[in-house]
Amino acid sequence: MTDEYNVLDGLYYTKEHEWAKKLDGNLVAVGVDDYAQKQLHEIVYVELPSVGAEVAMREAIGAVESVKAVSDMYSPVGGKVVEVNDGLLDSPELINDDPYGEGWIAKIEASSLDADLGKLMDAKAYREFLKSL
Amino acid sequence: MELKKTHIYGYHAEHGNVVDFGGFAMPVWYEGIQAEHKAVREACGIFDTSHMGRTWAEGPDTVKFLNYLVTNDVGKLEPFGGLYTVMCKPAGGIVDDLILYKFTPERFLVVYNASNRDKDFKWMKKNSKDFQVKLTDVSDKVAMIAVQGPKAEETLQKITEGDLSGIKRFNIGEVTVSGEKCLAARTGYTGEDGFEVFVLECPAEKPDKAMKIWNDLVGAGAVPCGLGARDSLRLEAGLWLYGNDIDESINPLEAGLRWTVKFKKPGYFVGQRALQTIKDEGVSKTLVGVMLEERGIPRHGYDVLDLEGNEIGVVTSGGLSPTLDVGIAMAFVPPGFSEIGTELQVKIRKNLVKGKVVKHRPFYDETVYGWKRDKK
Hints:
The complex is a heterodimer.
Chain A: E1 12-13, E2 18-22, E3 27-32, H1 34-40, E4 43-47, E5 54-55, E6 60-66, E7 70-74, E8 79-84, H2 87-90, H3 94-97, E9 106-110, H4 113-118, H5 123-131
Antiparallel strand pairs in A: 1-2, 2-3, 3-9, 4-6, 5-8, 6-7, 8-9
Chain B: H1 9-15, E1 17-21, E2 24-29, H2 33-42, E3 45-48, E4 53-58, H3 62-69, E5 82-88, E6 94-104, E7 107-112, H4 117-127, E8 134-137, E9 143-148, H5 152-157, E10 160-161, E11 172-177, E12 180-185, E13 194-199, H6 208-219, E14 223-224, H7 227-236, H8 272-281, E15 286-292, E16 303-305, E17 311-321, E18 326-333, E19 343-348, E20 351-358
Parallel strand pairs in B: 3-14
Antiparallel strand pairs in B: 1-2, 3-9, 4-7, 4-8, 5-6, 6-7, 9-13, 10-11, 11-12, 12-13, 15-18, 15-20, 16-17, 16-19, 17-18, 19-20
Helix pairs in contact in B: 2-7
């Protein structure tokens, strides 16, 4: 089954199907992964976190919705939201088209980057996790 | 538990995204909810509704029995006429909403919700004891396909002998579709013109007749639609979904179904005393339509608040209207908040989103969409 889902090497993943990608310094891009977008299918609405918001790891920071279902988005790391992807407001389908690229949701300045990433799964572990679903 | 399979399951398994819906293996979508929704609003979509309940009521007391069972007046129906109604518990709660089709005074077809199949049949059986009426559950022996949209008649006519235009809204007729004996009722659950085709003598184990009709409809240009589009279409039309908007804790007077309760019809009906009391004393809540004025998607169970932030009600059905591209909902609120134009708020996760009470049966402009639309 895992062949159906694209899991990128170098990213970190949660059991709730979010991803985190290390950028410069403590900056991390976050989004929902290919599994999440395929489960939701046509994404029609995204609720973004507020820029400047202090968020804890695993705190609900937004939501991704299809016509039929809503999926809460939990922050994979703790820190401060420094940027959000406003393009998703008009084009939520970017998450379907490119969940790890154009479909990114927020950038977070992580407060304990290594500790948080250490609690997430790497691509290999996440592929194993998807097999278990 | 193994899921029940309808007549059309073979098609769903091959082409659809199949889920457990009330114990039935049913498609949520084939290509996508939005495209399927659009096909029904603009052209023609088809739905497998074979999971619904279908029972024949026959015998000299059929009219008397049905008038005792349901709230609407069965006596006024002409042969080949259909009637939307609810049936209630003695305390007034809704057992189910259903459609009755009259063929003769001694022969009616009763069509009810899939999720209530067993419950409804038992309820009908239990209430039929004092009447000369025979109830025959044919849910597994008759297939059902809904053909819906402004091009429904044109599409179904391509594979039908006999003139469909002779079947008026909410009536039913005997037709031959793809060479098979069927009944076609001009009803549906989308707000659009269309038919619900009953494929007779078609057991679920031997579904060839129904599969042939389904495939012929696809060949004639109809777009197969799943439960996702069925739900978004019925929500835009402001139609009730049992288990969401109505259930046994809700009475028809508060659910906007006052028009289906005929207190003055002959004889007594189950729930009449309780409903009369509720009518005399007034309802404590009422089902309204809400349209959001800010971004957000209201959903079942979300709280409704007044502008001061007091909780006043709850969303029973909600979603993003694909046609209007705005969040719409049905919600219970106190009668004082039911006027069209009343401002209120819906709590969506942490946010309070502003909305207004609107005309909601249907939510869309009836000159542009739906069965009453201006013909081009």
